[in-house]
What we know:
Blueprint: E1 11-15, H1 19-31, E2 36-40, E3 52-55, E4 58-62, E5 68-69, H2 73-81, E6 88-89, E7 96-99, E8 103-105, E9 110-111, E10 114-115, H3 118-122, H4 129-136, H5 151-159, H6 161-176, H7 189-197, H8 201-207, H9 213-216, E11 221-224, H10 229-241, E12 245-247, E13 250-257, E14 264-270, E15 273-279, E16 281-284, H11 288-291, H12 300-307, E17 310-322, E18 334-336, E19 345-350, H13 351-354, E20 363-370, H14 382-397, E21 405-417, H15 422-436, E22 440-442, H16 445-448, H17 452-470
Parallel strand pairs: 1-2, 1-16, 2-12, 7-18, 16-22
Antiparallel strand pairs: 3-4, 5-11, 6-11, 7-8, 9-10, 13-14, 14-15, 17-20, 17-21, 18-19, 19-20
Amino acid sequence: MPEESISTELHVVIIGAGITGLSCARSLLTAAPHLRVTILESRPTTGGVIRTSPFAGLPHVDEAADAFLLRVPFAAQLANEVGLGEQLTSPVSAHASVWRNGLHRLPAGLLLGVPTQLSSLATSRLISPLGKLRAALDLVLPRTSVASDSIGTYMRRRFGNEVHNMLIDPLVGSIYAADTDHFSLEMVPQLSALASKSRSVLLTARRMPQPAANIAASPIFGAPLTGMGALITATQQAVEKLGGTIRLNSHVSSVEPASSDGKYFVHFTANGVSETLTANHVVVCSPAKHSAGFFSESAPQVSQLLAQSSHASVVMVALAIPKESLPQKASGSGYLVPKPEQRFITAVSFASQKWAHLNTTDSAILRVSLGRDGMPLHEHSDEELTSFVLADIKRHLLVDLEPTALRITRWKESFPQYRPHHVAHVEHLENHLATKMPQVHLAGASFRGIGVPSCIQQGVATAQKIISSIQ
């Protein structure tokens, strides 16, 4: 159907101006230029949990995610489409370590921490001899049920507690701020595939097709030279150029059916003034738990299901220190701290060693993560958080750091936690929503995958669904 056949009277309201909402709006307006699209964002800026700002004399240092996966195409494709393709860069230092009474380089051949090569595991000093023998039992153990849908339950039975605690949980946990004993196996597709294809994880990994040489040698991660915030800015500009409207400081209070004609009222407050928009479609891209109140009267069951969602809080601390104060053993891109060793820090990124464009001053830049699911630290004062960071780094690297610059960013309830059977929970939620309000859609990290590429994919897929329904 020609673009002109889509009426200008059709209005889509998107709640949330993170990367999901922005990519959804851009896709809608690209496919249907005459569609009216409004994004409502409660914060004073767009981007959600993607933010880049100046730090320690550098113009662009990320305050949360600093890269996206290149082998999942959606983020790289969007970057190219909004004019950032020539500005993408990749880490120059890829190897990472785990701290266990010292730094131990991660063994080769891991898939999100899961060993796929016993030979690499055998030479690692991170795992004890008994831990290695226990991991090798995966080759002979009978099939393990995936009915629990818990990463921890499944992987502990296959590889034992030590490999799970020192490898699998730290790597998965660093992505999701998760406790993998309470995290859905099905929601991590790479691990779910290993668990479901045959009896032994190691044998399944051996049978997996190896990537072509050019793919294996290509970078895994990428980011704009000017930080992840550049992807937000460029996508926002594309939305506005296409005619979309973005309203900041707009706090949605409720979404309800307008009448029997299939439209919806979206009630919100902007700068102290109550307003209402009428929409043909509504896309909820805000965090699930925070969105529950939108439906407390119009769809109570939907509201209750959204309220059951969990979100972890994380603190990101950036430090600038003289380069000479970083010990030689602090090599590579950084290190992870497994839960049995954790006090406050969960991961440290040696950002100026990881990224060439951050290695342009006399300072070394560290990005330190604190807190996770079950260990919230965001309510501590700046002084307390600073002392936690310096004490933990002294314990890990045996050095007293004296930062020349420090920045603390709190991400309260910002990392969705996919509890076991999350997929069934989302399907149940969407079924209730389809019954009550069939043209209200859910998209974003709370629902079908965390990470920038996944969020973009959900935004684009939701836009395509809406376009198909109105043509």
